[in-house]
Amino acid sequence: RYAAARPVDPLARQQLAKFYMSAGATGDGEGAEKVVQHLEWLDAREQKTATNAVELAKRYAAAGDWEKAWAKAERATQVSPYEAGNRELAATVAIKRKDYEAAERHLGALVVLEPNVGLHVQRVEALRKLRAK
């Protein structure tokens, strides 16, 4: 009722999304659809954090919808470009989509963001080997 009374206030949508997530709304059920619906609404209006985009990307990836997962993972990197976790998520989704160029771009950003983490260089090299096949 609060969401209907104040349609532009994100508080109701945030609370509803938290409620459905805490109720274990995963998979294809009605609760999962409601979580996605509220997160989509919130993400469309969010400009400062990528939290909603990341959650949506993970949910779409879990459902196997790689195009939607990619759109949200890419948005997360645009909203928070220096967050390594967002870059890893985007690279993972890009690899699942077989978009190796985009995956290499995000892995390359990880090398720059975290130069002391040798795993990122190894990932770039493994991706290049995969692309060469």
Measured as a percent range, the helix fraction is over 70%
Largest sheet: none
Structural class given helices, strands, pairing? mainly alpha
| Number of DSSP-assigned strands | 0
Q: How would the global form be characterised? A: elongated
What does this structure look like?
The chain has helices at 2-5, 10-22, 30-45, 51-62, 66-79, 84-96, 100-113, 118-132. The chain has 133 residues and is mostly helical.
Write the layout of secondary structure elements.
Blueprint: H1 2-5, H2 10-22, H3 30-45, H4 51-62, H5 66-79, H6 84-96, H7 100-113, H8 118-132
Helix pairs in contact: 2-3, 3-4, 4-5, 5-6, 6-7, 7-8
In short:
The protein has helices spanning 2-5, 10-22, 30-45, 51-62, 66-79, 84-96, 100-113, 118-132. The protein is built from 8 helices and no strands.
Give me some keywords for this one.
mainly alpha; 8 helices; about 130 residues; about 75% helix
